[in-house]
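Technical note accompanying the year-one report. For the benefit of new consortium partners, we illustrate the data format agreed upon in the data management plan: each record pairs a sequence with a structure-token string. No post-processing was applied to the example shown here.
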Amino acid sequence: MNALLTPELPAVPGPFRAAITAAWVRDEAEHVRELLAVARQPHPDWNAADRAAIQATAADLVRRVRARAQDQGAIEAFMRQYDLGSEEGVLLMCVAEALLRIPDPETADRLIRDKLGEADWKRHLGQSDSVLVNASTWGLMLTGRLVDLADGTKRDVHGAFKRLVGRVGEPVVRLAVRQAMRIMGHQFVMGRTISEALARSRKGANAAYRYSFDMLGEGALTQTDGDRYLVAYRKAIDAIGATGPFPDVFAAPSISVKLSALHPRYEHAKRARVLAELGPRLLELAQLAKRHGIGLTIDAEETDRLELSLDLIFQVLADPSLQGWNGFGIVVQAYQKRAPFVIDYIAEQARRLGRRIPVRLVKGAYWDSEVKRAQVEGQAGYPVFTRKPNTDVSYQANARRLLANSDAIYPMFATHNAQTIAAIHRMAQVMLPSPAGRGVGGEGPGSPDASARAEPSSGASRHLLPEGEGKTHWYEFQKLHGMGDDLYAEVIPRERLDVPCRVYAPVGSHEDLLPYLVRRLLENGANSSFVNRITDEKVPVEELVRDPVETVSAFASIPHPRIPPPLALYRSQGSERDNSMGINLANDAALHALAERINDAGAGTWTAAPLVPGAQPSGEKLAVTNPADRRETVGHWLPADAATVEQALKNAVAAQPAWDATPAASRAAILEHAATLLESRIATYMAMCTKEAGKTLSDGIAEVREAVDFLRYYAGQARKHFAPEALPGPTGESNTLQLAGRGVFVCISPWNFPLAIFMGQVAAALAAGNSVIAKPAEQTNLIGFAAVKLLHEAGIPEAVLQFLPGDGATVGAALTRDPRVAGVAFTGSNDTARAINRAMAAHDGAIGVLIAETGGQNALIADSSSLPEQLVKDAISSAFTSAGQRCSAARVLFVQEDIADKVVDMLAGAMAELKVGDPGLLSTDVGPVIDADALALLEAHAAKMATTAKQIAVAATDDSVAHGTFFAPRAWELTSLSQLTRENFGPALHVIRWKADQLDAVVDTINATGFGLTLGIHSRIDETIDRIVQRAKVGNIYVNRNQIGAVVGVQPFGGQNLSGTGPKAGGPHYLPRFATEKTVTVNTTAAGGNASLLTLGD
């Protein structure tokens, strides 16, 4: 039996490394209390005098900066007026980024009309005398000149702007905003090239700083991207090195490297590939930096990449060629709960390697996305703190940790906060070694007194580090280029704090500026941030420099009260259900635990047979084989015969009345118990999804979570809808509306969601008071059988829920034509849905109910305002996740011709990075299609496309797919949607170009197919989005994201026209469709008068 997950598991780590993983989602309150204790008392002799000194230093810094603010730069004024805490600031950033990327003027002008008219620009008038604020806002910056505004114009800038647009049109405004952003670019980007940046770094006041140069750009999507960044880093290191020699590596300039820029699949699931492919690239850059005597620092990225980064970094650092070089730096994010343990691990590794490792401590720039991802994935907690002051406390506590390990770590503190600067300065004076015990800057832990000074807090005597003596090699501050200049002008001079500061200096084009700038402003530019408030005279100095320890200590709740734990997401919004629990596949400890459970799930012994009380089915059991390797038998199943079908119908008819009479709350409680059981056995059902249905491990988690969500959601809906509802009426009369089950429901589910849709259909029918006969797809009987057994265990009577595996002719047709069946819930093809509809229409009895969800020719529309990188990621996810075998999968990508060439090239490059193979391995992106019939249909379609379409790409495969039913993901370019005559259910994407004036025609073409299941839209123009939404006749529309993965109760799922009957599964209108309605009217005066009226009084 092929093992799941195990072949790619990393070795069990040592204690320091394991402590990092264990702290991933620590309890926030407990963790912050520990950090508070450290930040409050960083040294045994720390006292009130130290705290007073910090406040005095911080207050002095603020007052000096405010004195300088009278001569503030244009960009500082701009940031204070248009920060990301205002709607206008967000819009301006979005407009600018989009305008710099949109190639065609028509779309750019639509963006201007769309965005620059919807914000409250008026409220910024009179708030600043800076010409840049006005010019940037109103588009009056022409050909690079700053145009001063006349007094009359200043009094009515809003009207003037309207007149300007009316007079000169959007093209002039387009040019104006682009020019404004180029001027911003000069402020925030050190240079367009590394040579320009280096030259600028040596001019005037810039020469007082150290520099770490960052090559702008987002993560690599393709190997070509990674190669381009590698060349850019090489050239930059050579250029920086050419400005040497440098006295020591800590004072030397450095390069900041983003690992995601060097490898297109820099993610935990690709661990082995990353270590094998990215390792040599990083080693080459490190060797080059060592040769030049400069530093190289690895930037921090998202939380799920942290531990992979550390493994890669120390794999490279262990290379003998880097021995003796202390320039390899690491960034630690204080908003991560794992930060203290990361620092401990770095220090332990540094001592083991005989190095001193530079560590840059930052707050963290991905907070909002980290919170959302934890909620979406159903994690046990958040990997980051939910309050900014908690992060501030973490920063101070971890700053102390860095200083305490200064034998092994060179501390670098990236901050724009005066209180933080003052606190670190004081801690350094107290904690760093005395001059007598201090060596030169390059000294590592091999010095005689290194071990003695590793942990001064353990009882070392207190001493103040003398000012100006050797501190340049013990720690430094860091800031972003273009921010905090006034603050650090009061920090670095010898007569002030006399601590060096390094500038994080971006290098690149203005087109690459905006994604970087938005992250920086999210980190530093919000209304509540120190950067924004330091020059605001309305904010008292005492408030600005308040110790975060005091702030957090005063909180009634340490976690943010308005950010619920991920599992309480829905309860916090008024829904009485838990969010389903997921598994963090980037957590090595979770992976080891999952591997043990998933491989102990009994694959090979699984069985399925009819579950019908009183029946004695007979026949030969049929083998079930693994779609990824047909040589592997994973279980056996026994089909139902005609007698078993008849017995099931009798049982269902007899059992339904008692089940319907069971209170809705009791039925709901059983379903909720089933959800808890299913959630606790997620590994078993994941194993079945992989071995029987060919699903990847991540798809298996999603499958189980959706099934759990269905059970809980419909339980809640039953409580809500099936309690008698009082209706209005005249006095002396009561009126109530009651719902009840229809009778016997047949649930026919598909193989592509063998647990989620199966469980959703069954749970809804049961919740409504129906008895259920469940027929799974022939390809996935084992999963259906296990699901029904679990529901029986939870408390559903065996005669109320029966299981009938079998083919469509023997089981499906017999059930749907039987007049005892009151309704059918079906997901599958249009042909089968029509056959069921005809069979039910032929009943002599009551007209039955058909709830059908069928296929779709799902499209994704992208205009030229969309971000090509994000578009391609979402197109690949939408088209190829689950081997393209989702009802919602994208089949056609309509891309505006102005960006089509770029998108098609990116698509081909990204498809080359897909891993097709064993779905039981974490590294696999695309598994097999379900069976030989599905494969044959896809291969026939590929043969047709070979003669009628232009091939864009075919994903690579290897020998590992030889024994499975694999179809390599493919993309073709078509000239017209009419070239597709049917839905092609698999990993097949078709691209069609359209012109900017053809948007309505594109939507009409999609509507004309008759399908209407899902539609994706990629655009940053609200008017365009609204136009498509209003015109498209589809059930689910997704904007600027992928178009798969509808969440129960959040994105109710179901189509229109040929894509389904409705109502939407997982939505508020679904459950009543399984029920009948009854109105009860009682004349309450019949017993002798209207008591309620007579007792009203006067």
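Partners are asked to follow this layout when depositing records. The chain has 39 helices and 28 strands.
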